[in-house]
Amino acid sequence: xxxxxxxxxxxxxxxxxxxxxxxxxxxxxxxxxxxxxxxxxxxxxxxxxxxxxxxxxxxxxxxxxxxxxxxxxxxxxxxxxxxxxxxxxxxxxxxxxxxxxxxxxxxxxxxxxxxxxxxxxxxxxxxxxxxxxxxxxxxxxxxxxxxxxxxxxxxxxxxxxxxxxxxxxxxxxxxxxxxxxxxxxxxxxxxxxxxxxxxxxxxxxxxxxxxxxxxxxxxxxxxxxxxxxxxxxxxxxxxxxxxxxxxxxxxxxxxxxxxxx
Length: 261
Known about the structure:
Blueprint: E1 10-19, E2 22-32, E3 37-41, H1 48-56, E4 63-68, E5 71-72, E6 83-86, H2 98-104, H3 116-126, H4 142-154, E7 160-164, H5 172-189, E8 192-197, H6 200-206, E9 209-214, E10 217-222, H7 224-229, H8 234-260
Parallel strand pairs: 3-8, 3-9, 6-7, 7-8
Antiparallel strand pairs: 1-2, 1-4, 4-5, 9-10
């Protein structure tokens, strides 16, 4: 997993979280470098979302420390962390237009007062939503809703962006298209991204490194290539390698069937 580096963009140091008798996270430690795309991969209930909530400040760990740019943010409120999050359900306001959804959060920051509309319009144009400013969420496709949610996060200029299974509700075609767009946006904005998913193929397509999480502990944190070539244990080999190869086989068979139609 590598030595913890307090000079990294983000450093999670020996964090644990328990709810009642249930241990959700067990002594979790890892670092994220500036500009890195790190996926947190694991099945439902493994602690992925709890970890994100700790990073955003919505939940405090029972033990451990969170450092950002070397500064302890463990007890800082969410609005002082400069960490944005894109939720699985996007959490858009149905009674607001796309433009107003993105401009809304800026209203609560004195530094942006009077600039909300222009800042929101600029960021929406950069994510390909410039033609939909006056539409409402109910008029948008799933992919357009996701772009709006990403724009709402980017307009706050966060240092780190967290994604909580943002493609779970999209069809296969939209997922593939938005993977490419997400990587382009990361390069354009030089963003540091933590991406939660249970989809092995998605993690491998997007990530610089992947953390395999199960029952609240890290089994391996490594490059996609090393996860396949050098799995740390039988769980990683089974959950990552075998599942990914099976999915790729299914895709190849589907492509072959489509070619005969």
